[in-house]
Give the backbone structure.
Amino acid sequence: MPDLLLDVQGLETVFQTPAGVVHAVNGISFGLKEGETLGIVGESGCGKSVTMLSLLRLIPTPPGKIKNGKALFFGQDLIAMPNEQIRHIRGSQISMIFQDPMTSLNPVLTVGLQLEEPLMLHLGMTRNQAREHAASLLNMVGIPNAKDRLRDFPHQFSGGMRQRVMIAMALSCSPPVVIADEPTTALDVTIQAQIIDLVKRLRDELGMAIIWITHDLGVVADLAQKVVVMYGGLIIEAAPVEELYANPQHPYTLGLMGSLPRVDEKGHHRLVSIDGLPPVLYEKPNHCPFAPRCKWVTEKCWKENPSLLGVGTEHRAACWVDTKTGRAR
């Protein structure tokens, strides 16, 4: 589609391990519009982070390999770009906020030096210009005494402050796309709320598009316009956020929703658990990867992996069964 800022088509990523080839991402496709926030949801190991690392060509090779697919960004394929070209895209055009800032920030360099480097590299600033801009970035993300804090090392910041530094670093070159890989997971709920409010404010002020990776459906409800649910390296449901929460269609999404405590329900309801374990993908799924854990499973689910089927306006689900009626689609 011509109005897409980022258009991912049929992405496949595998890893060679001593036990065999792990099919981590199995032909997923999605799009991101300018200024849009896309939530990507799923349990650990479903392929969320590997998908984003593949887009930025940060998969260690070996053992990893991008086997197939395209990722069109302003019409250019990120997957086919020469290494020198993709290095200039990272940070300046597409930035990433990682899950644990303590392992993402260099512990032996000051925060100021780490903020100034992309400004000098991508924007051609002098050291003095970069230092001034770095201070304004720290101030923008709510770190007091910004100029003085530039001389501090990462261990001198709290967890929430380190994550704010990572956000400042991601926004330093005003990229049109920011990827946030579970950036609030290691923080307590009060700091989580502050970080999410900060990201929402900066998104609205700067007009950037965001891909927010998480396993927390509550965060997605508050932040995203569209949601993609992943399982077994595949997208199994995609919809606008209000539609997904009001009308989940895939059995796995229903299980995720049922495991959330609700404050708007009357009476007491037992939370739902999803029996079984996620698939170990030593073989590319040729049947529905959720079939071993699904209460709606049919014979067809074991024979053929469903593609995403239209189940509503902009709502698609990869399931052979209508979970509302129990009948085949």
